[in-house]
Amino acid sequence: MVKFDRVMAVLVLLNQNLGMKKGVAMLMLLLGVSLGAQNGGSANKIPAFQEGEWLKFRIHYGILNASYATLHVKSDTVGTVPMYHVVGRGKTTGFASIFFKVDDTYESYFDKKDGKPYKFVRKIDEGGYTKDIEIRFDHDRDVAILNDKKNNKKFNFTLNEEIQDLVSAFYYLRNHYDPNDLVIGKSIELKMLYDDDGIFPFRLKYLGKEVLRTKFGKVECLKFRPYVQSGRVFKEQESLSLWVSNDLNRIPIRIKADLAVGSLKADLDGYNGLKNQFRIIMD
Q1: Is 179 helix (H, G, I), strand (E, B) or coil?
Q2: Strand extents, DSSP E, 127-236
Q3: Which of 53, 118, 167, 180 is most buried by a 10 A CB count?
Q4: What are phi and psi of 92, to 5 degrees?
Q5: Nearest to 19, CA basis, from 79, 100, 132, 86
Q6: Beta-bridge mates of residue 221
Q7: How far apart are alpha carbons 12 and 55 in whole angstroms?
Q8: d(CA 194, CA 258)
Q9: What are phi and psi of 205, to 5 degrees?
Q10: Residue 119 and residue 201: Cα distance in Å, rounded?
Q11: Please, what are the averages of pLDDT over each run of 10 residues along the chain (283 residues)?
């Protein structure tokens, strides 16, 4: 059992540095790169997701159920182009919400055919800290325009190569990689555009297969190790681990992070509308 004072230390650290202000963002980032793929790989013959898919993640800080995050796939259009419209939401709950309230929304519109992002929205309200960001991707001109609506500022980014936003990356990779191409110990990179960091590479190392016990039963997973900056929040550069279902859905099952004080864990807590059968190992 984790002591109460240690849990409070975790909450204070998270509130001041990464945490409830960036905890949902970190989860979305890890979901977005949690599939260990190589950009531009061959597409899977069987789609990994469909309209109507809904995933729910429960995030723990110490012994607390501190927040929830959901991802919901819808259909829409941008101009005349058919799009998937994914809405991601995260909120603090219960005891943790007494200290700081988080209500975040992330949205991504990406092409149903090739997965290219066309629009990304980030609206957050985290204990009075707010952001209202919209990114428009113009693939004909190879430019992305970031509109910071709160501060009435705009920034242009040149797109010299394939790129994804924080949410579209998750769905692009689910449909564009072959697990047989993964090599244990090998690191891969994915280019992403995010308002806090601009265009950046995210390194990820494949560690092999592992069976996890979940609320749904035993699930065989592919395990990965993202590289993060060590310092005030993370203990060391390799403080994150994540597990993705080794089936045709390729959904995140668990994320764990060792922080400078305490730890964070996110588990798949609910799902609906999966395209393929969720593979559960029967005892």
Answers
A1: helix
A2: 129-138, 143-148, 153-158, 187-194, 198-214, 217-226
A3: 167
A4: -75, 160
A5: 100
A6: 210, 245
A7: 28
A8: 23
A9: -115, 135
A10: 20
A11: 38 40 51 41 74 93 75 94 94 70 90 94 88 95 96 93 86 81 83 79 85 96 74 48 92 82 83 96 81
